[in-house]
Amino acid sequence: MTFETALHDPKLCRVLLARLTRALDGRSMRFMEVCGTHTVSIFQSGLRSLLPASITHLSGPGCPVCVTHDVDVAAFLELAGREKIVFATFGDLLRVPGPGGQTLKHAKAAGAHVEIVYSPLEVLTLAVSNPDNVIVFPGIGFETTAPAVAATLLTARQKKIKNFCVFSLHKLVPPALRTLLDEEGDNAANIEAFLLPGHVSTILGIAPYAFLADKHRIPGVVGGFEPADILLALCRMAEQLRDNAPAVVNAYPRAVNDAGNPKARALMEEVFITTDALWRGIGRIEQSGLAVRPDYADMDAAVRLGVRLVETPQQQPGCCCGDVLKGRIIPTTCPLFGEKCTPAVPVGPCMVSTEGSCAAYYKYLEH
Amino acid sequence: MDTCLLLDAGSGGLASQRLTAQCFLRHFANPLLARLDDAALLRDVHAPIAVSTDSYTVTPLLFPGGSIGTLAVHGTVNDVSMLGARPQYISCGFILEEGLSLELLESLVQDMAGAAKEAGVLIVTGDTKVVPRGACDKMFINTTGIGSIFADPTPSGHNARVGDAVLVSGALGDHGLTIMGSREHLSFLSDVTSDSAPLNHMIAEVINAAGPVHVLRDPTRGGLAATLNEISEQSGVSMLLEEEAIPVHESVKSGCSFLGLDPLYLANEGKCICILPENRAEDALAAMRASPYGVEAARIGTVVGDKACRVTLQTRIGGRRILSMPEGVPLPRIC
Ligand code: SF4
């Protein structure tokens, strides 16, 4: 039995479910997972159908595609449509609708040169084989992706590859969680515990989440992605709530070091600087994004190609992506869900990405 | 002789004749084709007849486990077979891009000939067009297959009945992932190979051993998920599958988990789904496993009566979820 199979073992899962039920002791628990990969795993493994009915599962702002703002989508669509530009992107950005429902697929059909890549380093190969074009890579993702993109910039500089630049839309997880919890009144988040992202935490470690427990008295547990990993994390949350002892802990030590990965953080810091960023459905969050440092301006698409950010009209009327991302509602509560908004004709980005919570509800649950 | 294809070769004149003689007639060699009349005369196709056509535009032209040539034969042979027919003859239309390497063309034609030989079908008529550079991507092939139906009643997507067993002839996802891997040069996928194969002989054995089956389908584009959802809709039934029982190679599982793809949504080119009464499932499975293309055949689920026409998966940890119809092309995720 491989390690991964072991973590799908029905017996082990039953033991953990029993521990979870005991820890809940009849109480309810509203937890939010921050990472899109958790969302998919919870649905795909069937774990959701096994969770005690008193658990409410919310999906947070952790799918990089879902939180990309209309203004940014409009900006990269404009970039992709320019002459002598090759827009090299990860595949799932192709279907993300910008203003007026336009996507990279539309841009491609209209003649834009769009290439799907699988790693940022692959983009450099493209650059070398397309010397007459400028290759633009949209830097979309969280702390997990940013170090690899930083490494790519450094490699490009070292290899003197001049026709490559990044449109950095990277976002940072802790400031987003802070914003969710700082909302007050009607907008106040109703989240009792966080399942913290496994991949992001390999870079950050656990210290940046300390405010969850210190300031808000909310448990935060870093968890892995197999069903038993997630169940273990849920047990730890429920036990902290039962004992009224909230803390930020690491329940995924086989991948996450409590101190994170300082080398990867150093790479990020070398190339990027924190800046305000726009989050779809949430709005502007201070110091929650990464921009390319002026030292690397020649590889900053925003500077080199003069990207213009233009205010876009309000997102589609009726789309509740913001409320979904903040965990205030579950997707099926959105009036457009499954009727006007489906993965075939997505209205909001939460329905586009395979890791979006609306798409997961649509794909895996009866409706 | 030229090393690459010139527009002349599609002119209908001497250049065309040379290409036909040196490449197509030579490798597809059979008396019906050799007559070179405007149409092929077929005397031994008996009603009811199954006819199927498909166009092949795969990039890259060569991939681990096959090529556009083998695919153009296997795909059409399999489609005809799914009606409980014995595929006999194939027509093929080539659309070739000016400048195509003649050596490559010939090797792909040889692949077609080899695949046809294995399947026991003859390529009896064809057409070649050469289009200017840029008007197509190297090479497109259309094939049409024809064959007499021997299964009575004929299998159909409308015939799944409550209580039937759902079988699949082997592991899923290999072809789709192989194409993605070789198109994008993903070195970590170097150990996956397309399952492209002719299924006609295996299907004949299955029907011999288990009698007429209710449904036969090959889960090509959209994979198992799309095919089973279509059958559920057509037959007005639901299905319950056991995730644990669905064969998927480890290499495909790990490649998919890296790319955020689901093997049950990836294309297969050498697999069939067979739905038949429960009491004949073991016979059908034994017949599949006796074929080199069905060694990993497995029973993966049951047809159930729920009128909602949905396919539900009982997961490895004992939970349940829907296996829904796919949307568009699977795209690898960010992360
Ligand atoms: S269902 Fe569609 S419209 Fe509603 S919140 Fe989700 S993505 Fe937005």
Short note summarizing the structure:
Chain A has 367 residues and is α/β, with parallel strands linked by helices. Chain A has helices at 3-6, 10-24, 36-44, 47-50, 70-80, 104-109, 120-129, 146-158, 173-182, 198-204, 210-216, 227-242, 262-271, 301-304, 321-325, 357-364, and strands spanning 29-33, 55-59, 85-89, 113-116, 134-139, 164-168, 193-196, 220-222, 248-250, 272-279, 283-292. The radius of gyration of chain A is 21 Å and the shape is globular.
Describe the 3D structure.
The complex is a heterodimer of chains A (367) and B (335). Chain A is an alpha/beta fold. Chain A has a domain of 147 residues: HypD, alpha/beta domain 2 (Rossmann fold, 3-Layer(aba) Sandwich). Chain A is built from 16 helices and eleven strands. In chain A, strands 2-1-7-8-9 form a five-stranded parallel β-sheet. In chain A, strands 4-3-5-6 form a four-stranded parallel β-sheet, with helices on both faces. In chain A, strands 10-11 form a two-stranded antiparallel sheet. In chain A, a hairpin with a 3-residue loop joins strand 10 and strand 11. In chain A, helix 3 packs parallel to helix 16. The two termini of chain A are 36 Å apart. The relative contact order of chain A is 0.17. With 335 residues, chain B is an alpha+beta fold. Chain B has two domains: 146 residues, 2-Layer Sandwich (60s Ribosomal Protein L30, Chain: A), CATH 3.30.1330; 159 residues, PurM-like C-terminal domain (Phosphoribosyl-aminoimidazole Synthetase, Chain A, domain 2). Chain B contains nine helices and 13 strands. Chain B has a seven-stranded mixed β-sheet. In chain B, strands 1-6-4-5 form a four-stranded mixed β-sheet. In chain B, strands 2-3 form a two-stranded antiparallel ribbon. In chain B, a hairpin with a 5-residue loop joins strand 12 and strand 13. The model of chain B has no long low-confidence stretch (mean pLDDT 92). Classes of the chains: A alpha/beta (367), B alpha+beta (335). Chains A and B meet through helix 2, helix 3, helix 4 and helix 16 of A and strand 13 of B. Iron/sulfur cluster binds next to helix 15 of chain A. Chain A: It comes from Candidatus Desulfovibrio trichonymphae. Chain A: One of its GO terms (molecular function) is 4 iron, 4 sulfur cluster binding. Chain A: InterPro entries: Hyd_form_HypD, HypD_1, HypD_2_sf. Chain A: One of its GO terms (biological process) is protein maturation. Chain A: This is [NiFe] hydrogenase maturation protein HypD.
